[in-house]
Amino acid sequence: MLLDTFKVVHRMNAQKLTGPELAMRLAITEEELGRLLATDTFDAADDFADLLAKHLETDLPQLSESGGANHVVIRSADELRATRRAVQRDGIHFYNYYSMAAPVGRVAPVVLDILCPAGRLPALNNGHLEPAITVNLGPGDIHGRWGTDLTEATWRRMRAGTDAVPWVAGDSYVEPSYCPHTYGLATELPARIISYTGASGLQALVGETNSWADHAFEAMVESVSDGAPGAILRGLLARRGHDLTSLARATGIPRGRLAEAGNLTLDEVRAVARVLATDYRILLPAMRDHDEVGKTFCSVDSSVASIRPFRGYEVASLAAAPHLPDLTGMFMHVRRATGDPVLDLRDFAETHYLVLAGEITLWWRRDGDGIGSARLTADGSAWVPPFVAHGWSGSGSVVKLGSGRHLSHADHLELSSTFQPQWLLRRARRDRLGWGYDTRTGTAQSGGTAQSGGTAQSGGTAQSGGTAQSGGTAQSGGTARSGGAQ
Fold first, then answer.
1. Burial class (CB in 10 A: 0-12, 13-18, 19+), 288
2. DSSP-derived 3-state class of residue 113
3. How, if at all, do strands 142-145 and 182-185 pair?
């Protein structure tokens, strides 16, 4: 199994487990452990990996190499079309799905041919945890359905764009978690959509609750209530050993006002947060903009009305909602001379592009000083990692989508409250520095580079051809055995 050295060292630090102590528990020498941790990843036999996870008191997936992509991924139009898979629903050929560019293991937006014929009520699906953004790409209108009973909120025509502004492809909307949805043609014209199920900020919590006791889960659900400030305040009071009476005494705010947490002034919210040592922002009412089933809609007319210049492009907004701040998108119109590289875009989260029309070139900065490029036509797609400078030239249009993977709004909140965030991020990246209680205090741990005048501990450089052996020493030219690196 391929393990991530930085995750292993971070877990050692969190568990307050020194390099010498861990080596002893693994029945290998400090030098062997040092060689394992001297590279960014190391391959370990299954029984050794299991033993390592046991002594670090964690699960193996928490130590495994994540394979995070750090380079642009391109998928040509032909490659996208080759991903076609047919979906049968309600006894008919209902959709064709196509996957856009993304690194292996990542969720990519999908393009769907809408095949349910006009005049037929499309069958609903069951929804999904991830909120989603969907855009009608035309050329025809479609009907969207979001509930069993047909109402203004659950049955709506999603219009395609117009010849007047062809690069604004059509209506768009965002949907909440587990909102049932489906689509059918509204006319005899064919139609497609692009749908992106973005990352859910609740994924980790939901996954953890699968193993909770039923009574604990139900207590958590009851405590959350509707997510209003009052429900959050009640939990914070109990956690800190306060009630409304003691909070009123500490803040000088009348108990009756504290009981209506959602009506407190900003100064009062700050006063409460200071006493409870919490972030005042979680006690503010959420901004919401959605209909009765949780959707937020943006018509073609609204998108056209939003057209504005941006860094040499024309852009127009897609549907967006303040209660789903990580789910974003826009139409982009590209019209600039090809030739010289263009690097005028950089986003704090991953970005997906689908070319709608024309022939345009994506440029991006490679590692170091190199510049990459790819010429794409309609149905070509690209995935760009966070904070990678890139840009477009040529004549055409794209739709751009993004979600909260990488810097989410929760990450921004955390960073805005963090002491010396820039220093922390630099200190934490690729961290091999021990926590200071190894046998030589202040030294780098297990193959790392010493800081502040310290010397390297627990293994310097690996011997040529040497590999770790269970309970033994490095062997020149040997092969990995149980408990060693491979």
1. exposed
2. strand
3. antiparallel
**CA 379, 376, 168, 81: dihedral to nearest 10 degrees?**
0
Cα(350)–Cα(362) distance, rounded to whole angstroms?
15
For 225-359, where are the alpha helices, taking DSSP H only? 229-240, 244-251, 255-258, 266-276, 300-305
Residue 307, CA distances (Å) to 165, 313, 317, 333 in order: 10, 10, 7, 10
- Residue written as token pair 């990692």: 385
Instruction: List phi, psi (to 5°) of 363.
Output: -115, 145
On the question of a cis peptide bond just before residue 103, with omega within 30 degrees of 0, the verdict is no
Residue found by looking up tokens 């297990």 in the block: 446
The dihedrals phi and psi of 256, each to the nearest 5 degrees, come to: -60, -35
Domains of the chain and any CATH numbers = 1-69+430-486 (no CATH), 73-199+294-402 (2.60.120.10)
Partner residues linked to 401 by β-bridges = 329, 352
Report the Cα 188 to chain-centroid distance in Å: 38
Cα–Cα dist 48/26, whole Å: 8
Q: How far is it, in rounded angstroms, from Cα 105 to Cα 474?
A: 35
d(CA 377, CA 372): 17
pTM score of the predicted model: 0.80
pLDDT per residue, tens digit, the chain (486 aa), is 888 888 888 788 777 788 888 999 999 998 988 888 888 888 888 889 889 988 888 888 778 766 556 689 999 999 999 999 999 999 999 999 999 999 877 888 999 999 999 999 999 999 999 999 999 999 999 999 999 999 999 999 999 999 999 999 999 999 999 999 999 999 999 999 999 998 888 888 998 999 999 999 999 998 887 778 888 999 999 999 999 999 999 999 999 999 988 889 999 999 999 999 999 999 998 889 999 999 999 999 999 999 999 999 999 999 999 999 999 999 999 999 877 899 999 999 999 999 999 999 999 998 877 899 999 999 999 999 999 999 999 999 999 999 877 888 888 889 889 999 999 988 888 887 766 666 544 334 444 333 333 333 333 333 333 333 333 333 333 333 333 332
| Beta partners for residue 475, in sequence order | 467
Written in H, E and C, the secondary structure of 22-37 is HHHHHCCCHHHHHHHC
Cα separation, 458 vs 12, in Å, equals 14
Q: DSSP 3-state assignment of 110?
A: strand
